[in-house]
Amino acid sequence: MIVAIIGGSGVYDPDLFQTVEDSLETSFGKVTFYRGFFNEKEIIFLPRHGKGHSVPPHLINYRANIAALKALGVGRILATSAVGSLTEELAPGTFVLLDQFLDFTKRRALLFDETEVKHIDFTEPYCLGIRSIVKEELEKMNLNYSEGCYVCTEGPRYETPAEVRMFRQLGGDVVGMTNVPEVTLAREAGICYACIATVTNFGAGISQTPLNHEEVVEVMDANASKLKKLLANALPRLQNEEKSCSCPCPKEV
Ligand code: HPA
After folding, report:
1. How far is the CA of 25 from the centre of ligand 1 (A)?
2. Which domain covers residue 165, as residue numbers?
3. How far from chain centre, in Å, is Cα 11?
4. Does residue 110 belong to any structural domain of this protein?
5. Which amino acid residue places its CA nearest to atom 8 of ligand 1?
6. In the chain, N or C terminus with fewer CB closer than 10 Å?
């Protein structure tokens, strides 16, 4: 099984494994990614925001990214993401394994072919098979984690305190700008997908100070060694263990 890691804010360097830069032209555009070997098996690392974090959340070519991973034969994606917390109970540094999402994006491509009449089931948005492996590894490592609901905003601005209060009341636990449509396109492509988020800050209004991207990257850097260890422990299992989930079967993109 070819596994891909999608690196979010603060996770740019694929130095867990020796990789070489490569690129692929898809019908949605060109994607630059990194190929390498881990545990003697091929692995793909894709920095979501492009090289050097050059693409903002609302301009990421999500369709090209997932189409490229599909074309490369990827069967499982473990994504990483930096998120703000919607509750005082989830402090910066906590890992959150996503289990649901609320979609507040506004103007992103939603399907590979938007003219198609297609209604995909999202009762279980994140692959239960990948989640159970990651959960076991989080527990073995004794890491502070929670499972939770991700609110995806359009960005690129941070939220107002009123939005943070609303998102919390609606059932959100963490907020970010990139998980939708990444997760939905992966499902459409038939690739099992899960996301391990890192809380980098309290949401606006909970935080005592204004938010900024540097703070997000600082907390990600501070947590980087734990995240890398977690990936290193989960990867061989993701590569070798048979699928036991009920995510829909692959289809051509
Ligand atoms: N809001 C939106 N996206 C984020 C945040 C936040 O507070 N922190 C990290 N990504």
Report:
1. 30
2. 2-237
3. 11
4. yes
5. 84
6. N
